[in-house]
Specification:
The chain is mostly beta strands. It contains 1 helix and 11 strands; from the N terminus they run E-E-E-E-H-E-E-E-E-E-E-E. The chain has a 4-stranded antiparallel sheet, with no helix packed on it. A 3-stranded antiparallel sheet has the order 7-8-9, with no helix packed on it. It has a two-stranded antiparallel sheet with strand order 1-2. It comes from Neocallimastix californiae.
Length: 170
């Protein structure tokens, strides 16, 4: 027996009471249905192409949203941000009172006369903020730019040393 619970067919092998059925991104697609589901989604998207005149200009409304990696080792925290085609002069970094590091800038679109049929590159202004941990040594933050990748190195502050001492009672 098959029935539709959401927008895909289900059968006895699909248990929607299973904790693995739902994911943070929606319901779980069983591997046997994944290929059918992807094909159906692509067909639906092709059918739903809009003829609205502003849809051709939608890419202009999307801000540049660079990808980044966060990491740490014993001594430092790291932020690596992909900023292809940008120079260090086009990027600003600001540390606020609440220990928040903001990286911002603008990636300008080239001014050539080419009429693009498809655009995958992102252009425009961006701003990303990172809340730094309490043990971040904000006085010694370093940043370097090489090959379109911004690397920010945030040293960890030395933990206070617990020393044994005598306290006088008054």
């Amino acid at each position: 027996m098959s029935f539709y619970l959401f927008d895909q067919p289900m059968d006895e092998s699909d248990d929607f009471f299973s904790p693995f059925f739902y994911t943070p991104f929606g319901y779980y697609t069983h591997p046997k249905n994944a290929q059918k589901s992807n094909k159906k989604s692509n067909e639906d998207a092709q059918k739903q192409k809009s003829t609205h005149p502003y849809d051709k200009e939608v890419y202009k409304l999307v801000d540049f949203c660079p990808k980044f990696d966060l990491g740490e080792d014993e001594k430092n925290y790291y932020i690596q941000m992909d900023l292809p085609g940008m120079t260090k002069e086009q990027i600003q970094m600001e540390l606020t009172e609440d220990n928040s590091l903001t990286i911002s800038g603008e990636r300008a679109k080239s001014t050539n006369e080419i009429k693009y049929t498809k655009m995958n590159c992102q252009y425009g202004k961006f701003s990303r903020s990172f809340s730094l941990p309490e043990n971040a040594n904000v006085e010694k933050i370093e940043a370097k730019m090489a090959n379109g990748v911004l690397e920010v190195i945030i040293p960890k502050a030395e933990p206070p040393k617990n020393q044994r001492r005598t306290i006088q009672i008054q």
